[in-house]
Amino acid sequence: MADVARLAGVSHQTVSRVLNDHPNVRGETRERVLAAIDELGYRRNFAARALVTRQTRTLGVVSFDTTLYGPASTIYGIEQAARAAGYFVSIVSLKTLTAAGVLEAIGFLTGQGVDGIVVVAPQRSSARALAALTTNLPTVAVEGGRAGGVPAVSVDQVNGARQAVEHLLEFGHETVWHVSGPSDWLEAEGRLKGWRKALTAAGRPIPEPIVGDWSPRSGYEAGHLLVDQPGLTAVFVANDQMALGLLRAFAERRISVPEEVSVVGFDDIPEAEFFPPPLTTIHQDFGEVGRRSIEILLRRIESGDDGGYERVVVPASLVARASSGQAPRRRTKAAPRSTGRRSA
To answer: Which helix (DSSP H) or strand (DSSP E) does residue 264 occupy?
Structure first.
C-alpha cells in the first residue's frame, strides 16, 4: 500500500479510502490511485486485514443436493450477491439435511472464521437444526420457517400455488389435481397449502394429491396414475422436473396437452419454455432471494445486533405458456369426488 501511495503521490490513508470505495475521494485522485494499483499489480492481503478488522470477508453457506434446480439456483444467487458486496463464499454441501449434519456444518464454518452464515433450509430437519442453534454468529435462513427466531428469506410458495390453480380455474376447469413434492419439504407444504386454499375459496372439489419426490420419474409415474382418474382436465405439479415426467406419461397414453388436460408446473427452470408443449409455470426469483438474504446478513454483521426475528417473502409470478388452456367442452368422465379435505 505504501508503494501505491508513493507512485500515486498520495497518503496511504487515501489508498485505503479508494480500496474501500469511500465517497470522500476526488475522481482524479481515485483514478491516479487505481492506475498505480494496476501498474504495481497490488493485491490486498486479506489475512493481514482480517487480523486488524477481525473480519475475514467470507460468508458461509450450508446447503445440500445442489443437483436440484431450486437449491442450486439459490446458492448461485447468494454467491453472486456476496461477491457484489465484496465477500467470498465458503460452501458446505451435505448429502442429507439432518439436524446433526447442519449443526456440524455450522460449527465447521464458525471454526473457519466466517463473518456470517446462510443456511439453505428447505426441509423440516434443517429447520429443527436452526431451532437448536446456539452460536452468536449472524445467521440467515433461506426457507427454514420461523425456527429459533433466525431471520428467513423465502419465496411465497402459497401464493405461487394459488396463482397456478386460479389460472386453471379461469379456463373453466372444474377442479385441479395436484402432484406434490415430498412431505418433509417446507416448499412442498406451502404449494400444497396454496393449492387447497385456492380450490376451497372457489368451492371446488379437492382430489387426493399424489406425492412425488421432485424427480421426472415420480412425475412420470404420477402421470400414468392420473390418466385413469375420472374427469381429469387440469393438473398443478409442484415442480417443473416432475411436470416433464408427467408430460411424457401423457404423451405415451395419447393425452393431448392442453386440449384434453392442462398442466402447470413450478420453478420456471430454463428448459421449461422448450418442453413439448412449452410449460406454464410459476417463476421463482432466486437472484432476489440471494440479494435479500445477503442484505440482511451484512446488516447484522455490520451492526453487531441480531435485530430479532425478520422474515422477507419474495413474490412468485405466473408465466403462462402453451401447456394450459380452456377446459374441454365435453366431459366423457365424471368429475373427481372431493375427499372432504379442506384447508383451515
So the answer is: strand 262-264
